[in-house]
Amino acid sequence: MKQIYRLMRTILSNKGLIMNLARNDFRARYSASFLGAVWAFVQPLITILVFWFVFQMGFKSAPVDNIPYILWFIPAYVPWIYFSDILTSCAGCMQEYSYLVKKVRFHIEILPAVKILSAGFVHIFFVLFIFVMYAVYQIPLSVLNLQAVYYTFALSVFGFALGMLISSIAVLFKDFVPLVGVFLQIGFWAIPIFWNPETMEPWVLAMLKLNPVYYIVSGYRDCFITHVPFWKHPVLSLYFWVFTLLLFIMGCIVFSRLRPHFADEL
Question: Do residues 66 and 59 lie in contact, with contact meaning Cβ atoms separated by under 8 Å?
Fold first, then answer.
């Protein structure tokens, strides 16, 4: 528990540094391209347009939960963009900032938080994009839409716990970063983002709910579609936060155990 307390104290005492590094990270990620940071938004928007054209215009997919398919798809796809960005960026953050890792006095445990905050800039844009799309389709807003703040926080905490774990493992195991990409490709089709989980067998649905990302994806749909408050899912909410806490503890332990080897490996 000392490691967890020390980590949280380090993050809270370096809030300004984390914000500055996150802004620089976001700008530097696309500095070599002509359009710059625009590329952070182009690819997800293209994916949304492709799904809109293929499923709604091409296949004439029926409305899901009494709303057009594209409006059912976007609230689940937006948190997936954020989650996949967190995983890919955290997996290689120690290698990317190797010059900081080798500094004795730098708190490298803040690097996953830097990457999550950097990815959060894009996520905020796409959450606002959801509101724009619902306004275009003249779907009335609800106060429960604001639950997106809670689910964004939940995903950020879960992403940080997972980021602490994978960022430390990736330093010692060089093939781990490509494996994260493979995991994300499988995860996109395994999580109910573009297909309705209610059509699955009950036992399959029960297995899907064991994935913490399911809680986030279905939660965003609760925000914008079914308007169900998160406290109406007490068991699922408790499971998510207990799983996240255990993952966070494991991530802190693994990070602290492997940290002395980072400089040598990098």
Answer: no
Q: Could you give the count of Cα atoms lying within 13 Å of 170 in the half-sphere of its Cβ?
A: 24
| Sequence spans of domains, the chain | 2-265
Q: Where are the alpha helices (DSSP H) in the chain?
A: 2-13, 15-29, 39-51, 69-91, 93-96, 98-101, 111-136, 147-172, 176-190, 202-208, 212-221, 234-258, 262-265
- The whole-angstrom separation of Cα 87 and Cα 241 is 19
Contact 197, 118 (CB under 8 A): no
CA 48 to chain centre: 17
For the chain, give the number of residues. Answer: 266
Q: Which residues lie across from 67 on neighbouring strands?
A: 64
Beta bridge partners of 153: none
pLDDT per residue rounded down to tens, the chain (266 residues): 666 667 777 777 778 888 888 888 887 776 655 555 677 777 888 888 887 777 766 666 555 667 888 888 899 999 999 999 999 888 888 887 887 777 767 778 888 889 999 889 889 989 999 998 888 888 888 889 999 999 999 999 999 999 989 988 888 887 787 888 888 888 888 888 877 777 777 887 788 888 899 999 999 999 998 888 999 999 999 999 999 999 998 988 888 888 877 766 66
pTM: 0.88
Q: Are 246 and 153 in contact (CB under 8 A)?
A: no
Backbone dihedral angles phi then psi of residue 142, each to the nearest 5 degrees: -140, 155
Q: Which residue has the tokens 């830097």?
A: 114
